[in-house]
């Protein structure tokens, strides 16, 4: 390679120039930057100790200079409702952005990188003769915009406004402070990054910002407002701006940038030009510089630029997505502070610290054991247990049903029934999971009539034979375990009469199809699925009565709890979503109308189901497409369900329409359960890629849900909870008597592993 051009002299552009020059000393490496070398907007930048390790390996010279300038801190303070909660062991360091850029500029110059300042670039076209053009222009990159077809950028403008300020106040810890005004919450994210300066970012919801007239405020008025609101944390120190020259409001919206493709020909996106991560996880500069490390490694070790760029994106795309997911969770936490305002400060702080879903209970315990002791002691007290324990082992009460812990075996269709009758497979399957330690075990979706089934293999509950077969399993569960058993009932609607899960799922049967019904005549897979009949009021009445019959048979079989399946695009779910319900009568249109039939079913079932036993409703709280069910719909639905007798809501998502575009990740649906629990004030079950004990502990301790359901992990490990108890040293865990000898062995193995640091 002869010529490499970096468009933009921020951390990404400068660091890639340095590393390219080191890897390919004979190449000409140039950086073009619109600002002067000494200009910089913004204040501090934070790096974790781990990130610094990566920089040391990539370039020891700049690492040494950066390390000299660092201001270190270990603690995080959360100020909320007049109290301060401190947690320790976080190991971060701050540096001024200006210093960081100056160090990188000097290092680049010493290696022979050519730097041109005060050059405004328009697109990458002028560098066609270069072998590689690194587009490092930051979040608002013009070069990326001019090639939108190739890079496929999406830019999401978020709900908060923030202003990035400095102050001479010295903060002894990373500081989050929350203040409520008559129009809503404001928060500061503040940290010291040098001997005499700190960064203060003030953030609030767009509507709160506008209600205070800050949309018309210039920099001085904005600073005066923030100084007054946060005076308690600033001492007498003023807030400072270094962005007075910028036009427009000093209050910005965060832009969440993601790109489908990061390279085209010899042009490559890097840093904020490719992806942004909300400042609350403090990882933007880290990501930008680690992109540079990866880019240079892949390009300089590949036979050709194209394959180097492909492997760069393959590596960094995954990392960026992980961090963007974590940042999205944290960003949404800060956008929705009002949800958590009823928490006491300790749990509020825990919820904040674990809000990215990247740092969990075990990690916080490692960082600050006394902090986690306080959390566990508080939780134990609140749940009537004498000794602190891992949060997943806290008991839970719903009506007269007592659960010994917070772990749930999520409903999973087995497709093994004959004529809806559960057989030996089901006895073994549910029996093993009940004796496996989970507090609550769900049946699969059990259908209310033969034509309500998804497939011919689904279980049902519309006759006495099925009742008796279920009763055999219920009696086993009750005789052999402390687990409670929940019957999930549902009607497949337009997704009925389809093949078994491991065949062509959602596709019609190859023979013997039965007619399907739905609120509206819209097929699930156009051109493939049956077109459902729009239900008449008489059919709706009949289906409602089928639900009541199933509930009555379920009570007779001895189930402890009942769940109505109103998720995943099945019949009742398809009344709730505007994508599948386009009726023009009183059952379609507004959310009140779409709720009407599901609520009629719920009320009728609640009346038939014993008052001492709890009832759950499973919801898809997001359709993962435009124009699907909205957040306000979900809250209205949750409140209406609770008022009609639902004791808990099992919060899933999607599967409403085939063209959904879900964003997967660990615990990916938990933010929805959190929203419903803390906004609508209804207990929830979280589900979806919760696969470690640490996930369950974190969700429960943070008050994001009341129970955690695990589906696939329980397929592989029926005794998931027994193993999790042993691994965490929770010796009070119940075990089936015939298996007791394994308990001690597992506990000792876990103790040994902990002692040798293997855990
Ligand atoms: C409020 C806030 C707080 C943050 N806090 C942190 C933090 O604590 N820790 C952290 O790691 N990150 C933080 N970030 C993120 C961080 O600022 C960015 O993620 C990081 O700077 C990205 O580096 P970059 O080089 O990709 O882009 P940038 O730093 O934006 O650099 C791009 C450069 O390109 C130049 N440029 C752009 N267009 C042109 C053009 N057309 N012609 C010439 N030059 C051009 C720009 O002037 C700029 O110098 C924060 C961001 C914000 C908004
Ligand atoms: C094999 C299988 C069958 C499922 N059947 C049902 C079902 O009958 N009813 C239901 O509500 N969800 C069903 N689900 C969804 C799960 O309950 C759960 O919501 C989903 O798998 C996400 O959890 P996980 O990431 O822990 O697997 C099924 C999932 C799997 C893997």
List keywords for this structure.
759 residues, alpha/beta, eight-stranded mixed sheet, eight-stranded parallel beta barrel, globular, binds flavin-adenine dinucleotide, binds flavin mononucleotide
What's the average pLDDT? 94
Strand fraction band? 15-25%
Helix content: 25-40%
> What would you call the quaternary organization?
single chain
> In one word, what is the shape?
globular
Class by SSE composition: alpha/beta
Summarize the main sheet.
8 strands, mixed
Bound molecules: flavin-adenine dinucleotide, flavin mononucleotide
Poorly predicted tracts of residues: none
H/I helix tally: 25
Short description:
The protein is α/β, with parallel strands linked by helices. Helices cover 38% and strands 19% of the residues. Flavin mononucleotide binds at residues 410-413, 444-445, 488, 501, 565, 567, 618, 652, 687-690, 710-713.
Architecture blueprint of SSEs:
Elements: E1 3-7, H1 11-23, E2 28-32, E3 44-48, H2 49-58, H3 60-69, E4 71-73, E5 76-80, E6 83-87, E7 92-96, H4 97-111, E8 114-116, E9 132-135, H5 142-146, H6 148-151, E10 153-167, E11 174-181, E12 184-192, E13 198-205, H7 206-211, H8 219-229, H9 231-234, E14 239-240, E15 252-259, E16 263-264, E17 267-269, H10 284-301, H11 305-335, H12 345-353, H13 361-367, H14 369-382, E18 396-398, E19 401-403, E20 407-409, H15 424-434, E21 440-447, H16 464-480, E22 484-490, E23 517-518, E24 533-534, H17 537-557, E25 561-566, H18 571-576, H19 591-608, E26 615-620, H20 631-643, E27 648-652, H21 670-680, E28 684-687, H22 693-701, E29 707-710, H23 712-716, H24 720-727, H25 740-755
Parallel strand pairs: 1-2, 1-9, 2-8, 5-11, 9-17, 20-21, 20-29, 21-22, 22-25, 23-24, 25-26, 26-27, 27-28, 28-29
Antiparallel strand pairs: 3-7, 4-7, 5-6, 10-13, 10-14, 10-15, 11-12, 12-13, 16-17, 18-19
Helix pairs in contact: 1-4, 1-10, 2-3, 2-10, 3-4, 10-11, 13-14, 15-16, 16-17, 17-19, 19-20, 20-21, 24-25
The protein binds flavin-adenine dinucleotide (FAD) and flavin mononucleotide.
